[in-house]
TrEMBL record:
CDD domains: IgC_TCR_alpha, IgV_TCR_alpha. The gene is LOC785621. Pfam families: DUF1968, V-set. GO terms for cellular component: T cell receptor complex. One of its GO terms (biological process) is adaptive immune response. This is LOC785621 protein.
Amino acid sequence: MNKILEASFLILCLQVDWVSGQQKEKSDQEQVKQSPQPLTVQEGEIPILNCSYEKSAFDYFPWYRQYPGKGPAFLIAIHSVVNEMKDGRLTIFLNKSAKQLSLHIATSQPGDSATYFCAAEQTSGSKMIFGKGTQLTVQLEVKDPNPTVYQLRSPQSSDTSVCLFTDFDSNQVNMEKIMGSEGSTVHKTNSTVLNMEILGSKSNGIVTWGNTSDAGCEYTFNETIPFASSLEISCNAKLVEKSFETDINLNSQNLSVIVFRILLLKVVGFNLLMTLRLWSS
C-alpha cells in the first residue's frame, strides 16, 4: 500500500513540475512577442519584422535566423545604448521607451526566406528569452511569366515520368496541389529559383516524378489556377514531351571516337614492336 502511495505521489510531483514548466515557458514567450507571425513579400521589397518586450531591464536584443532542417544561427544584435544597428542589408531599429524593435532587410532575396527569432536578454545574468518567431517568405518576381512543362517519359515503360515546371510566377500556381491521376504516387522537389544570367532573368522551377505516364504534368497547368488577385484565370501552359531515347548523332560521334582510339593503339603497338625488333637485331 505504501509503495502505491509513493508511486502516486511521484507521478503527481512530475505532473506539477511539467505544468509549472509549461506555464513558465508560456510566460517567457509572452515577455517577447513578434509580429506578424507569417510574412510574405516580393523580391526586392523591404520586409519589416517587429518585436516587443515586457521588461525594461532587457538591454541586449539579438536576432536569429533558422532555415528548414537547420538550427537557429545568429544574425545581428543591438544594445540598448544605441537606437540603430546596421550590418550589410540588415538594420535594427530600437525604441526603448516603447519597448519595441524591428528588423529591416533591404533588397530582399528568395534566399532570405526563413524563420526569424527575436530575443531579449539582461546582460547582468538573466537567461535569454525568445519570441515565437516570424516566418518570412520572399517570392521571386518573374517578369512576363510563360509557364512551360517539360515531360520526360521512358519509351520502355509507361509507369515512369519526370516533369520540369519552369517560368511560372510565384503567385501563379500552388505547387502543393500537384498531383497525378487517381491511384498514382507523385513526388516533388521544393521550388527552386533558376538564375539565367545569360538572359538576364530569373525563373521558378520545380521537378516532379511519379509512377504514372503524366506524374502530375498535365494536372498542374490544365486546370483553373487561383492568382494572387483571387481571380480565377486559366493558365495555358505549353507541354513539351521528350522521351529518354538517346541522340543518334551523339552515338555516332562516340563510335567514331572509339574507332579512332583503337587505330591509335594499333599504331602505337606496331611502332613499339618494330623498335624492339631493331634493338634486338
